[in-house]
Here is the input.
Amino acid sequence: MSAPVSSNGSCARAVVRVDELRKRYEAGVAALDGVSFSVAPGEFVAVLGPSGAGKTTLFRCMTGLTRADGGSVLVRGQDICRSRGLALRAARQEMALIFQQFNLVRRLTAHHNVLAGRLAHVPAWRVMLHRFARPDRQRALACLDAVGLLERAWTRADQLSGGQQQRVAIARALAQEASVILADEPVASLDPESAATVLDTLRAVARSGVAVVASLHQVHLAVAYAERIIALRSGRVVEDAPAGRLDERTLEQIYARTAPAGTVPERPHCSSAPQSLTL
Ligand code: ADP
Ligand code: MG
Here is the structure.
């Protein structure tokens, strides 16, 4: 289900709206240079761009992990960039971040890792004593079931494959009950088969109504899985279009380097056909 998207990338029923977001690091690099777009519930958006384009900075600013220098990130009407205290906490709860390296507690079970997604919903004493209430424990199991890992609930995270660990991280995001899942290079460390399973899972999550924004390096995966592609280069949005409209010229725009005259810019591997899916 895709929302109507206007030419400037804003959609009528956005759950998250990024407007003119800017971030410059001390070294003087403009990592984000006025980024604007919106995402609707149920959309699966891929953010494409070469290394250094600003993808990680974008996700960190959207979740409030890094303070933007300017612009706004509105989630359910609350500006992450200007909120403080409880309001910031409430807004951040709406955004779950998934990392390339999964960020699970390796010695804890899959179930326990998913329970961490409930932290914002339970009293601090329960967290301290690891005494989660039955409804939270059941919800964590349901989230593992949703990503196809119920039978691995009691397995330690470090005994799961990379793809399974990433699906536990997705289950943790589901347990958080976030409106938006931001996944920063979620399949960059995975073999193609595991990558397909993880992207299938993210697509299913989007279809359940959550807005999913995933940064990807591989153009063919973005085209195969996302409904919409936002291309970043040097901290700017150079394309925001339905995936089916991504053509050769657009790829040139995204990946063109300031290469010396006469040399061919580095291009990503791009297969002509989407990979087969396995779930
Ligand atoms: P991507 O995730 O697309 O590779 P990043 O957001 O990591 O891009 O980086 C965008 C730009 O900001 C790059 O030029 C990078 O070198 C710079 N950058 C990222 N993090 C920092 C930092 N902590 N300090 C200084 N510069 C940074
Ligand atoms: Mg990055």
